[in-house]
Every structure is written in C-alpha cells, then in structure tokens.
C-alpha cells in the first residue's frame, strides 16, 4: 500500500467529525437538509466557482473514478501564487508526503461515506469515522430519529466540484477548507410514511469542510474541525 493510498484512507476515516458539527448546528434537521438558498442566475455554473480569495486556480484530474463508481467531481487547487496556494506549499515544506490532489480524492471519499452512513444509521461505520466524543453526539441524533420512527433517504446524485477553498499553516498546525458542490435528494419520513423534512427533489448543495492536522505529530489523521454551507 503506497503512502498516498494510506493518506486517502486515513482522511476518509476521520471525515465524519464534520458531519456531527453540522448536525449540532441544525438540531433536528437531518439528512444534510439546508435552508433555502438564494436563487441563482439561469446561467450559473457551480463548476466555474473560484476560491474565496478570488485567486486563480489549477484544475487537476481525479486519481480515478469516484467512490460510487462514476466520474469523480472536478478538482480545484489554488494557484501557488494565491494565499491558499502559498499555504499549501508551506504545508508541503513541513510534510513532504502531503499532496493536494490526493488530499482531495480522500476528501470526496470521506464526504460520500459520511453522508450515506448517517442516512442509513450505520453506527459501525460512523464509529470508525468519528472520534469518540463526536460519535456520542451523532449517535444521540440517530437515537432520536429512530425513537420518532423516522427514516432518512439520502441520494448523492452528483459531485460537481471538490475544491480547496482556503488553507493556513500556524506553526506546525495546518488547516484546509474544502468546498463540495453536490446534487442530493434528502427526505425524512415518519412512522406513517409522510414526509417530515425535505422532499424528493434534487437540490444543489455547497458544503465547506475544514480539516486540521498537527504536522509534527506522528498521527497522520486530519481532524474535521469546522463546517459551513454556502
């Protein structure tokens, strides 16, 4: 197993942290539901988005098919001249094994695993993906859903983009924020089968997940420390 493969697997194994953060913010809103988003122009293309600093970006080809077996989403890495790109260079200076494109492959795999595990109530998978304290809170949300007799349906129809939105290095602590632009169906039904939350309509969602790691640590795990939505 190559170092790059190990990095991707380890990234996927901790990605669930972020989802718990999202659940904590949204309370009983489950299944990655989002508040209504502002209407976008008819010609809006999420794949043409740019990092927050407005700098140039570099498109990179995914390492292979997505975790679902279909084409992987567009990869975007900030130009080396941009603030985020300069931070990535500094991260590579501290951790020679770090590769931004492999990081993004792992980030997409993590996203898919966490979304589906939460929707299906797969505690074994979630426990493997989450730190113990995060899993405890996430399991509580699953307990509440099950006690209410509710079922979650989530379909990840497409991943349009996986992009490094921002990066920072403070001493040996690195932060990388990844933007996911996806098409999803999210719907929660009650005991009687009636829809409680969401609908069967495909909705475009943009999520921001922040990963953090102390590069001086022997532990190669990137912790998920923040979430948001655009």
UniProtKB/TrEMBL annotation:
Transmembrane segments: 6-26
Region (Disordered) location: 33-76
UniProt domain Tim44-like: residue ranges: 84-229
Keywords: Membrane, Transmembrane, Transmembrane helix
Pfam families: Tim44
Low complexity: compositionally biased ranges: 45-69
Entry superkingdom: Bacteria
InterPro entries linked: NTF2-like_dom_sf, Tim44-like_dom, UCP031890_Tim44-rel
PANTHER family on file: BLL5807 PROTEIN
The name this protein goes by in its record: Tim44/TimA family putative adaptor protein
């Amino acid at each position: 197993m190559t170092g790059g493969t190990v990095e991707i697997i380890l990234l996927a194994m901790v990605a669930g942290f972020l989802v718990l953060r999202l659940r904590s913010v949204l309370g009983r809103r489950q299944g990655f539901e989002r508040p209504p988003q502002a209407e976008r122009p008819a010609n809006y293309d999420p794949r043409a988005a740019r990092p927050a600093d407005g700098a140039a970006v570099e498109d990179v080809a995914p390492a292979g098919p997505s975790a679902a077996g279909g084409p992987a989403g567009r990869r975007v890495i900030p130009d080396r001249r941009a603030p985020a790109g300069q931070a990535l260079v500094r991260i590579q200076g501290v951790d020679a094994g770090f590769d931004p494109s492999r990081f993004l492959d792992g980030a997409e795999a993590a996203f898919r695993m966490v979304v589906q595990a939460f929707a299906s109530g797969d505690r074994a998978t979630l426990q493997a993906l989450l730190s113990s304290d995060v899993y405890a809170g996430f399991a509580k949300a699953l307990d509440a859903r099950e006690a209410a007799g509710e079922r979650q349906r989530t379909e990840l129809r497409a991943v349009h983009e996986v992009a490094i939105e921002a990066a920072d290095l403070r001493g040996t602590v690195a932060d990388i924020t990844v933007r996911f632009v996806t098409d999803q169906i999210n719907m929660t039904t009650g005991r009687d089968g009636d829809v409680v939350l969401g609908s069967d309509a495909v909705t475009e969602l943009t999520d921001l997940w922040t990963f953090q790691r102390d590069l001086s640590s022997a532990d190669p795990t990137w912790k998920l420390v923040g979430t948001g939505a655009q």
